[in-house]
Amino acid sequence: MASLLIVDDLIPIHEMLGAVLHPTGHQTAFATDGEKALATYKAGQFDLVLADIDMKPMDGITLLKKLKAYDQTAVLIIMTAYASTESAIQALQYGAFDYLQKPFKVDELLQALQRGLIYRQGLLARAAVVEASPGVIAADFESRLVGESQKNKRLVAQLKKLAGARTPILITGEMGCGHEIAAELLHAAGPAAASPLISIDCQLSSMASLRSGLLGENGLGGTWVQQAKGGTLFLQHLQALPAEAQAELVSVIRNNAHNFHLLCATEVDLEKLAEDGRFNEELFYRIAALLVQLPALRERVEDIPALIKDAANQTTNPQFDARQVEFSEEALQVLANYGWPGNLTEFRQVIASLLTTTETRLIGAAQLPLRIHELKHWPTLAAHLAVHEKQYIARLLNASGGDKVRAAEILGIDVSRLG
């Protein structure tokens, strides 16, 4: 049975919870404030902490922060008496596993405790794996995240560090920066590598497919969630998830937190959307426990020669070995000056085309596409659409059921651009 620490400044709450939990066989200890709870936790061994949020001198959120600083595997469930969930959402932001709003039912309490204990077991197991294997498939990181710039090195180091985590991770960065590669590496280097990686594009999925595949009935999750059991669930373009689905996804995550590792990706500032009421705030804090920021290509242009070399290793030229092709200094400078609105995706397309079609072993600036010469400023999303407008607009209109207002909102452009 598990060892639980109950923290509340009201003794009657201790007595009530003790009476409820005693028949379950769980061992319980009690504290009347955050300071005493922290000391008790450090002196003993506890599987889970159930704490009230409104206590003095140390409240539940402060206790949460200090517990997480002391023990990253600590699992804390917050109790709140407020009618609003604002305080509970704030607790989720700082790493609380879940929250219960008083007065809660006994079965709600027991279910939350069970989910928390299973989650704790997963954290401990994965912490042991990371400690035993700190250099998990390091070579794959370097081969797929090419570059010696400081930004790329920091990204590689961060992904290696997070590879053993079971906590939800939000991958952010501009379009084309490699969200899917980051997710694949996090999965492949983690303890669930032998299990499935289920990838879902929220931007291209209809509400009907989201309903059957992701949400299911009664917050239990659909077929995709079941397929991801024991593995990784990766939600791409999360900002495109309809508001109705966002609210239901919260329940799916609460009911299945221990069943899969959740990875999400977005190209927009979800936190600002949440603050503005345009994205479910509780969902944001549940999926953004850990953040990975992918750098734009324009922020690491010193990696361009290495990226060209990597592209050459994967490209075939009918006349000669593509690995023998070189770029002039002038051409390299033009490539560095260009803003790359499509980032790595656009870069690889351009370089692969040049390496495949060139009839000379030296590519000069004049052989580069005209737009590479003209666009020297940092591009806006509208500039990127000027290059790939038809493709993206067609895909988004199809995904949104022809709703131009919704498609324009996702893209961050005026609806008049959609005709």
Describe the structure in brief.
By secondary structure, the chain is an alpha/beta fold. 49% of the residues lie in helices and 12% in strands. It has four domains: 3-131, 3-Layer(aba) Sandwich (Rossmann fold), CATH 3.40.50; 136-293, P-loop containing nucleotide triphosphate hydrolases (Rossmann fold), CATH 3.40.50.300; 297-374, Helicase, Ruva Protein, domain 3; 381-418, no CATH class.
Features:
single chain; 419 residues; alpha/beta; Rossmann fold; Helicase, Ruva Protein, domain 3; 19 helices; 49% helix; elongated
Structural topology:
Layout: E1 3-7, H1 11-21, E2 27-31, H2 34-43, E3 48-52, H3 60-70, E4 76-80, H4 86-93, E5 98-101, H5 106-132, H6 138-144, H7 150-162, E6 169-172, H8 179-188, E7 197-201, H9 207-215, H10 223-227, E8 232-236, H11 243-256, E9 261-266, H12 270-275, H13 281-287, E10 290-293, H14 304-313, E11 326-327, H15 329-337, H16 343-357, E12 362-363, H17 370-374, H18 381-399, H19 404-411
Parallel strand pairs: 1-2, 1-3, 3-4, 4-5, 6-9, 6-10, 7-8, 8-9, 11-12
Helix pairs in contact: 2-3, 4-13, 9-11, 14-16, 18-19
